[in-house]
Amino acid sequence: MPVYTGSCFCRKIEYELRLESAEDARTTLCHCRNCKKAFGTNYGLTAKVPKDTFHLTKGQPKEHAGDNGSGVNIYRHFCDTCGSFILEFGERQENAKDHYRYICVGSLDDTEALPPKGEFFCKARASWMPEIPNVFHKQEIQK
Ligand SMILES: [Zn+2]
Ligand SMILES: [Zn+2]
């Protein structure tokens, strides 16, 4: 069973992902406006994992809940000391907060461990950013 460790920048928060296999994680880019804002860059990069595979081992993140513009709340967890974004989850049916966590891939200690399988919201891709080859591409989203 692979175990992936991660943390915020200042390591006040540390976590482990205990997956049955790497296939249990679905890493995707998202080019939507909300991800641009939340990540502070031109796309979001998260790994969708079953909720019960995520274990905090140190610290407690701060939670921010906000409507993403469609009447659906998105919850984002981040370090209240250094500000690193750790994970997010929404209320929408398929990414129900009871079932999944979307881990910010840059917070993993091995950022190459879970490469992307697809891209969402390609219609909002930065004009200078090329497509990732050999992954799925969706113009909009259904996480
Ligand atoms: Zn921190
Ligand atoms: Zn997005």
From TrEMBL:
Q: Which InterPro entries match?
A: CENP-V/GFA (IPR006913), Mss4-like_sf (IPR011057)
Q: Which GO terms describe its molecular function?
A: carbon-sulfur lyase activity; metal ion binding
Domain CENP-V/GFA residue range list? 4-118
Among its keywords, does the record have Zinc? yes
Q: Which Pfam families match?
A: GFA
Q: Does the keyword Zinc apply?
A: yes
Q: Which UniProt keywords apply?
A: Lyase, Metal-binding, Zinc
- Its family? Belongs to the Gfa family.
- Protein name listed in UniProt: CENP-V/GFA domain-containing protein
Species, as recorded: Penicillium cataractarum
